[in-house]
Specification:
Layout (H helix, E strand, L loop, with lengths): L2 H26 L8 H21 L5 H15 L2 H11 L15 H31 L23
Helix pairs in contact: 1-3, 2-3, 2-5, 4-5
Length: 159
């Protein structure tokens, strides 16, 4: 990758991340509660979409689109650190009472673990679907985004 292309990819990650974080913030407005269900949904959907993007774009030459969408937009959209810190930032107990007795983190830990497991499953499913879409489009491993291999010949599965 040339220095100018690397700089363009970095700029696209920055812009994509800002947009993804803004979308996450917009979804989260007004959805506060003792458990950050909007963050659970965002992380699972984001992981599935990121899996699809990686599966679909693996072995393609279009790294700028991947930079903008993958680590950029979807990286900014998802927030596992935000979910992990939510219980401590809200100052609520497991029942949701502010400053309530016990400050039990068990519900929040369970939500964090379930979210992580669900996100891994969503990412794997997204990857499989994306790879299947890539392969059915004729852009098999080693193919460029236009369906040709790096040496200019037809990619696997194309004529």
């Amino acid at each position: 990758m040339t220095p100018s292309r690397r700089l363009a990819a970095l700029a696209l990650v920055f812009v994509g991340g800002a947009l993804g974080g803004s979308v996450r913030l917009a979804i989260g407005l007004g959805l506060d509660g003792p458990v950050a269900w909007h963050l659970v949904l965002i992380n699972v959907i984001g992981a599935g979409l990121l899996g699809w993007v990686v599966g679909r774009m693996a072995h393609t030459a279009n790294s700028l689109v991947y930079a903008a969408v993958g680590p950029g937009f979807l990286g900014g959209f998802t927030t596992f650190s935000g979910l992990a810190a939510f219980a401590w930032a809200t100052g609520t107990d497991a029942a949701g009472a502010a400053g309530g007795p016990g400050q039990s983190p068990s519900l929040h830990i369970a939500v964090l673990l379930a979210t992580t497991a669900s996100a891994v499953v969503a990412a794997a499913a997204g990857w499989a679907i994306g790879a299947r879409a890539r392969d059915s489009a004729g852009a098999g491993p080693g193919a460029a985004a236009d369906g040709t291999a790096a040496n200019g010949t037809a990619a696997q599965g194309t004529t």
